[in-house]
Amino acid sequence: MTRGIEIRTSPHLKRVVTVDKIMRTVVLALLPIAAFAVWQFGLSALLLLVTTTGVAVLTEWWFARASGRGNTVADWSAVITGLLLGLTLPPGFPLWMAAVAAFVGIALGKALFGGLGYNVMNPALVGRAFVQAAFPVAITTWTPAFAPGRFTEVIPSTLTAPFMQPIAVDDWIAGLNLDGWSGATPLALQKFEHIETPILDSFTGMIAGSAGETSALLILICGLWLAWQRMLDWRIPVSVMAGAVLMALPFWLLDPSLYPSPWFVLCSGGLMLAAWFMASDMVASPVTAKGVVIYGLFIGALTVIIRLFGGLPEGVMYAILLGNAVGPLISSWTQPRVYGAK
Amino acid sequence: MAEAPQDRATAAASAPLLTQEETLTADTFIRGLWQENPVFVMLLGMCPVLAVTNSTINALGMGLSTTFVLVFSGILISLLRHWIPKQVRIASYIVIIATFVTLVDYAIQAISLELYAALGAFIQLIVVNCIILGRAEAYASKQRVLTTIVNSLGTGIGFTLALLALGTVREILGNGTILGISLFGPDFQPWLIMILPPGGFFVLGAWLLYFNWLRLNRLRRVTTFTGAPADAR
After folding, report:
1. CA A154 to chain centre
2. Is this complex's ipTM strictly greater than 0.85?
3. How far is B115 from chain A (nearest CA, A)?
4. Which residue of A31, A260, B56, B82 shows the fewest CB atoms closer than 10 Å?
5. Residues with Cβ < 8 Å from A227, sequence gap 6 or more?
6. d(C-alpha A160, C-alpha B134), whole Å
7. Which residues 160-199 of chain B have a CB within 8 Å of chain A?
8. TM spans, by residue (chain A) (predicted)?
9. Angle, CA of B147, B150 and B155, to the nearest 5°
10. Which helix (H) or strand (E) is B12 found in, with range?
């Protein structure tokens, strides 16, 4: 085959990075976090992650088939959605609710918009927001980390029959005879009782919380590796964290007994996971270099505002969904000037 | 009631745009129920559709009220169609519709205060429901009384069925009950979002998806059968 001279605009040299390669790398970066979640919360967390990932992939497969878009499961994006969703849910979350969340996330958050590349918002967070509104009690029922026997038995609420209320976990937790279990996450403790968890605990993840959001250190390492691999835009997580710190700092300086310290803000809740793996969603974030910084600062600041003044202890989910919603607007505001134009 | 031929002639002269009067067929009724369903096809009256379908009984109450107003305002407008001046017809229709809405408003208040409280302002808002004004302008003002009654009944029942389609799904998922009767026992986990406003949008969207899917499938079958191009509607 002879090739003529190819005349086209730059770039002429491109790195061969396909969608599925990026997605596989992100999955690889998420695996240590998932493994930590399983080590920390045991069998229940494993079942949760398997359920969300499985349902997400099945939903993706079915919608792609029904709409004639071919097999889009192979691009691995549904696996990321499922994994991320599972990591943001409480470890004892009933599996049927997790399946609902995964289905809604892929179907409503992605497939109905036309699949990967067309989704306005992060599909995993759409699914989580749906179950947060549908089952507000189940999604705020926390169970202790490092429970004895976590690898041999599941948290009772995990295996709730479909469409039934989660089985109460109070008796099970009481049976564990744990010292100092208050039934709250560090964020809730800080918000409602103004008790700040030791920073080392929340940094390393020795705390209760959503399955994969506990260890800020591990998420940081995995995220940095991903950024080093050039699979995510480092500006997004950095500006999200900067936005959160800048917003939290004045309040903390004003009254440290009432407001959380900036490092506590960074290490608690889902902020770290959200900053590195959700806000940086390539489809739902703005496309310009200046735009992503505005977008990140907006998400970080909004998270802190919701945490400090909203009704819920955690606000990073809504902050990112709102950030996704205004993303296209930010993109159009920050269009770079064409070289040579006035 | 039979009309004298000269009456028709004067009517035609005073309103040259008058469309031909429809002869009564089964289609007069079924059209509003299915092909021209006010909610799932014409997407009219979305405000009550989304707002009061959080339970089956509310949906039924709203649907029947609207049907009543639709039929009786249709009768009156059809009877008065030769006497309502063209310039003030909308205002006249609104007065007629408002009369029947007031009737319904008081009737529901007398029958069930609970339902009245649940439906709230949406009973009064039937006045500005575009399904009713649309039927008045497009049908009742141009057609005989008998066909108007049948057509309004079809549209009204179509609207009621659509409301019920939303209301039952939202009540079953959001409360585990249907018409207040528990379906799954006390352990059922209600999907709170379904009885909140977002649930209305989700369920409406799901039904529209289903009906469009049905329509496209039928279109595809017709296409393969006749060999006509796919975009020929």
Report:
1. 24
2. no
3. 25
4. A31
5. A233, A234, A237
6. 50
7. 184, 187-189, 191-194, 196, 198
8. 21-39, 95-113, 125-147, 206-227, 234-254, 260-279, 291-310, 316-334
9. 120
10. helix B5-14
Hey, are the CB atoms on B189 and A133 less than 8 Å from each other? no
Name the nearest CA neighbour of A84 among A316, A327, A329.
A316
Report CB contact under 8 Å: A133, B194.
Answer: no
* Cβ distance of A135 and B192 shorter than 8 Å: yes
Task: Give the gap in angstroms from C-alpha A134 to the nearest C-alpha of chain B.
Answer: 4
Q: Which residue do the tokens 């004067």 mark?
A: B10
Cα Rg, chain B, nearest whole Å: 20
- Measured between beta carbons, the chain A residues lying within 8 angstroms of B191 are 134-135
Beta bridge partners of A48: none
Give the C-alpha separation, A42 to A150, whole Å: 5
> Does any CB of chain B come closer than 8 Å to the CB of residue A166?
yes
pLDDT tens-place values along chain A, 342 residues long: 566 777 777 777 777 788 888 899 999 999 999 999 999 898 999 999 999 999 999 999 999 888 887 778 888 999 999 999 999 999 989 999 999 999 999 999 999 888 888 899 999 999 999 999 999 989 888 888 888 888 888 888 888 888 888 888 888 888 887 776 766 788 888 877 777 778 888 888 888 888 888 888 999 999 999 999 888 889 999 999 999 999 999 999 998 888 888 888 888 888 999 999 999 888 889 988 899 999 999 999 999 999 988 888 888 999 999 999 999 999 999 888 888 876
Q: Does B206 touch chain A (CB under 8 A)?
A: no
B202 interfaces chain A, CB cutoff of 8 Å: yes
Alpha helix (H) residue ranges in B124-177: 130-135, 145-175
Give the contacts of B176 (CB within 8 A, at least 6 positions apart).
B182, B183, B184, B188, B189, B190
DSSP run (H or E) holding A228? helix A216-228
Q: Which residues of A touch B177 (CB under 8 A)?
A: none
Q: Spell out the alpha helix ranges (H) of B46-196.
A: 46-51, 56-79, 89-111, 113-119, 130-135, 145-175, 192-195
Q: What letter does residue A197 receive in the DSSP assignment? A: P
Residues of chain A with Cβ-Cβ distance to B198 below 8 Å are: 133
